[in-house]
Amino acid sequence: MSDIDRLAEELTTYLTKEQIDHVCRAYYYAEQAHEGQKRRSGEYYITHPLAVAGILSKMHMDYQGLMAAMLHDVIEDSEIKKDAIAKQFGNTVADIVDGVSKLTNIRFENRAAAQGENFQKMSLALAKDIRVILVKLADRMHNMRTLSAMPPYKRRAKAKETLEIYSPIAHRLGMHDMCVEFEELGFAAIYPMRAKLLSQAVSKARGERKKFVSDVIENIQDALKQYNISAKITGREKHLYSIYQKMKLKKKSFSEIMDVFGVRIVTQSIDECYRVLGLVHNLHKPIPGRFKDYIAIPKANGYQSLHTTLFGAHAIPVEIQIRTNEMDDMANNGIAAHWLYKEQEVALAESQDHSKIWIQNLLELQKTTTDPAEFIENVKTDLFPNAVYVFTPKGDILELPTGATAIDFAYAVHTQIGNTCVACRINKRLSSLSEPLESGQTIEIITASNAHPRSVWLNFAISSKARSNIKHFLKQQNRQESINLGKRLLNTMLPHISPLYEDLEALPKEVISALLKKLDITNKNDLLEEIGSGKRLNYITGYLTKLLSQHQELAAKPSVNTDEQLLLITGQEGSVISFAQCCHPIPGDAISGYLQIGKGITIHRQKCSELSLNKSRHELLADVGWDDHTKGVFEVNLSLQILKNKTVFSTIVFSITAADGEIIQFLIEDSDLHTYKASVIIGVKDRIHLAKIIRKLRHIPDILSVHRK
Ligand code: MN
Q: Is the pTM of this model over 0.85?
């Protein structure tokens, strides 16, 4: 019997005769197209697509997917075009074949740029038809299985790509079996010696522990029989690559890893899962904190199971997974389980939704990230499964990376929500945006239409989506701020350069165009941005002075009232103006501003010692003052001497907040038997506000002294 006849016979278990005929027709078409071509192993080329279709048939892939598998290398390797395939086999099959060819056409070459590009195309294809990815994965699987025909350097490159790209995708789609096989084959190809040694060690260790495992299984079996539950119980073997990863990344010893045993119990119904859980907990003591209910809260890739760890005999831990048949198929085949369980439309809809969301995230990420290296880095972090699961107020479940905060959550819900978020409630309690989230919490985001992302968010936003959106916003905002500051700076300086010109708009056109030409800048905003960000400032003012004196033949003599030339600080300038951390100026203080190249203006108090010390380092002293309508919260550092007393801290906190002050940081710097020395950073409006708070603090009997640093 020929190979195709054997496959056709296998297909009768789940396809109609007509469907099988279509698959065979695609096979003969491909055989002709690849006529005369051979694989590196010497076999006829057609054996490859046939094997790919075989892999997919094990997942009960539908007939169109199988046809596409037969034809997947036809466009790539022969003169035949997509149109011809569409004519013969219909648009659906042609689209899948075309999608696979496009993926194949992009070479990785280990360059980040190529990988980012590939991801994008791959995700586009996936968003349209998931079968493109499944055919591609099966194609890669057969190539990995037959890798030995390749020269060693190619073997390693393919294996590396498989571990970096394809096994994470299989994992993302919940296809555990495929993911494990990719990892085992990839590991053996990159590190043949390590894989061989590890494999020998594993079979030796397993031999020694055989009795223990079978005892555990037998115990459970007896208990289940007593309660009339029929379930499949199997020992779970750890695969080599995961042992290797654990040894390498978690720095665990081989025996530590091998000393943990896995048992899987597959039941008929969800109800039985929980009953089995109760039974095994009765049998052996569970280890606290290790129970996880992924049935109630599935993982993002659709995985469902109960996990628990027991103290077995001799205190050896036994990891137990409990799930139903359907969940088991879902866990092993992931999204491909759809074709195994056609009737379970709901489960499929959910798992497809999850992968769709992932793809949409990828596409959005691609829009905001221009650097391919950054993109691939982001995608890589996103692919790894360390995750927390939290609820939206409506009860939807979101997956976020471990350590994610409400900022990440807000961006995961919607970019606009992230961009305008101001506060959050975690389990209905008002909480800090920087607090790391924990699985099971319900998160509600409070937004304000005029709010915008802040640069401090980058300290605690960890998801790639949140980070790239925040950075994107800040970059835009920075430019606008630099332009505004540049305009104000120029207007402040102009009367010094020439008393004839009040502001930029009053300058003669030809002077401006000469200036732009000299600087090789095309428009006025770019010029203002350069000034505002401190680049070439001396050069620009110097050249402008020269131009104006040429233009007017006029020696510029400043005769202006300097008071009017102050650059007034409103507190709303954003990141272009910053307040020095050494002296914490607040409205009402006498201040000086220093312009530093690329950093904008830093405001110091005039009596700041830091300032006089480093004068030479600063580029330019700007005359600054406070605007009458200064707004915002300004940080100020207080030093307190306090008598030790249990309630003194709450009294201090209460007095400051009662006076509308905001406590930003509270540090005990020193203490002896009776007193503390504390440093408190508080947020105030201005000097008057500060004076009020200090007065309140001085009224507390246990406070010995208060003064501003
Ligand atoms: Mn192929």
A: no
